[in-house]
Design a protein that fits this description.
It contains eight helices and twelve strands. It is about 30% helix and about 20% strand. It is of the alpha/beta class and about 270 residues long. The chain has helices at about 20-30, 35, 55-60, 100-105, 125-130, 150-165, 200-220, 250-255, and strands spanning about 10-15, 45-50, 70, 80, 95, 110-115, 135-140, 170-180, 225-230, 240, 245, 255-265. The strands form three sheets. An eight-stranded mixed β-sheet has the order 3-2-12-9-1-8-6-7, sandwiched between helices. This is STM4013/SEN3800 family hydrolase. Pfam families: Sulfatase. One of its GO terms (molecular function) is hydrolase activity.
Length: about 270
């Protein structure tokens, strides 16, 4: 990353609330072909989330603590703030002297842009403004939120507009928080009803919905130059697993997340 930063555009996509087991099953079954085409070896990497809900996890990720490989470490990090005694800062780590990765990239000349999804990015109150304020530019509309059946399409359209309006020489760090997987997601299954509610199956259908449109996001992110992309979940969620529903709790389905990083060549889709 010490060589990538400054020469590439950067894309971070958090598939908010995506469960690892669902992501793995759909990739193996050929149900998310557009994502699977970019996964190294066609498979997700199993990692542990840095937090059990959106706010905590993103605070950690924006500090350089991406989901950790689910195996004994230490594991060198891609990004890290400079501080004495760090055991996961390696020769190739991009090290910055600011409090967080976003401002660290801004100091390197990047335009930092947030396209929010769930409520912690909606800028409708003090708490919902903390994470977006890290960025030079942030976007959120009700159409991007969890209640919108077309949320990801709307987010991608905004990303395309953002990229199109940037000067070609301007480096970009684009962050997209994808809300479609988060509850409610029942409307991504044909014939489903609000009364039937959300389930692991509707969660899977939401991932298929995201996959149908993510090629446009990849194409926009790599339209000007080579792009380094990170696609991961911030945490999982439960649908009755061992009696639990939701997240912000210590369950395997919450702590285990899918992760991938890869390069997008110019013109990728």
């Amino acid at each position: 990353m010490a060589e990538v930063v400054g020469s590439h555009d950067l894309l971070l996509v958090t598939l908010d609330t995506l469960r690892h087991d669902v992501a793995v099953e759909l990739a193996a079954a050929g149900r998310i072909p557009n994502l699977a085409a970019h996964l190294p070896g066609g498979v997700w990497e199993k990692r542990h989330a840095p937090g059990s809900f959106t706010y905590a996890s993103h605070q950690a990720m924006f500090a350089g603590f991406l989901p950790t490989p689910a195996a004994p470490g230490p594991h060198p990090r891609l990004f890290a703030a400079r501080f004495a005694g760090s055991e996961t800062t390696a020769d190739g780590t991009f090290v910055y002297d600011t409090p967080d990765l976003v401002s660290g990239l801004a100091a390197e000349g990047y335009r930092t842009v947030c396209i929010g999804g769930v409520g912690f990015f909606n800028r409708q109150g003090a708490l919902g403004s903390v994470l977006p304020r890290m960025f030079q530019e942030s976007h959120w509309e009700p159409e991007f939120g969890v209640a919108s059946p077309t949320s990801f399409e709307e987010q991608v359209a905004r990303a395309e507009k953002v990229v199109a309006e940037l000067p070609r020489e301007q480096r970009l760090f684009l962050f997209v928080n994808v809300s479609a997987l988060h509850q409610p997601n029942w409307f991504h299954t044909p014939g489903a009803t609000r009364e039937a509610g959300d389930s692991r199956a509707t969660h899977a259908a939401a991932l298929e919905y995201v996959d149908r449109h993510i090629g446009r996001l990849f194409a926009a992110a790599s339209s000007r130059r080579r792009c380094f992309a990170i696609v991961c979940s911030d945490h999982g969620t439960t649908y009755g697993d061992d009696g639990y529903t939701g997240h912000r709790l210590g369950h395997e389905a919450v702590w285990t997340v899918p992760y991938a990083h890869f390069f997008l060549e110019p013109g990728a889709s």
